[in-house]
Amino acid sequence: MALRVAGGTIRGRQRCRSDAVWEEDLRRTTDHGLVADEMGAPDGVLRCAESGLVNKGKDAVGVARQSWGSLGQVDHAQGGVFAADASRHGDALVEKRLVMPESWLAEAYTDRRHTCNVPDEVPLHTKPQLAVAMVRSIRHEGRRPGTSRVADGL
C-alpha cells in the first residue's frame, strides 16, 4: 500500500502507523462492521490466539526477552493476543492487544516507556485476560453474527 503512493516507502508507512493519532474506537467499530457485513455468518467462529515476532529494536513497545510458542524459542520479541472472525465466507483479523512484559513496568524502563509513548498507567495483564477483554468488547458491540468462540495457545 505504501509503495503505491508516489514517493512512498515502507519506512514511511511504519512512521505513519507509529506517529499518527488513531481514533481506536472508531477504527475498531468500522472494521468489525465491515467484517460482519462481508463475511459474517451465524455459524461463524471468533478465534483468539497469541503470536510474537522477533524484534530487537529499542523503539518498539513491549520488546523484551521472552518465550513465545509461535517462535518456538526465547528471544527478544514483541507479542500480542489476536482475535479473528472466521466463517465459510473467509476470515479476518478483528482485534489485537499488545502484551506488555512485566519488566516494562519496572522503574528501569521509565525512559523507554516515555520514548515509546506508553501511557503512565499501564496495568499488567496475562494473555488469557487480554483475550477475555477482547471477547467481551466484541460481544458488547453486538455486531458479530457468530456465536462460537475458541482460543489457542493462551
Number of domains: 1
Distance between the termini: 32 Å
Class by alpha and beta content: alpha+beta
Which residues form runs of ≥5 with pLDDT under 50? none
Kindly provide the radius of gyration, computed on alpha-carbon positions and rounded to a whole number of angstroms: 17 Å
- What is the mean predicted local confidence, pLDDT? 82
State which percent range the strand residues make up: 25-35%
- Tally the helices: what do you get? 4
Helix coverage percent? 25-40%
Order of helices and strands: HHEEEEHHE
* Principal-axes shape call: globular
What does this protein structure show overall?
By secondary structure, the protein is of the alpha+beta class. The chain has one domain. Helices cover 31% and strands 29% of the residues. The chain has helices at 10-19, 24-39, 110-115, 127-141; strands at residues 45-54, 64-68, 73-87, 90-98, 148-152. Strands 1, 2, 3, 4 and 5 form a 5-stranded mixed sheet that branches. Strand 3 (73-87) and strand 4 (90-98) form a beta hairpin. The longest helix is centred in the first third of the chain and has 16 residues, at 24-39. The chain is globular, with a radius of gyration of 17 Å. The two termini are 32 Å apart. The mean pLDDT is 82.
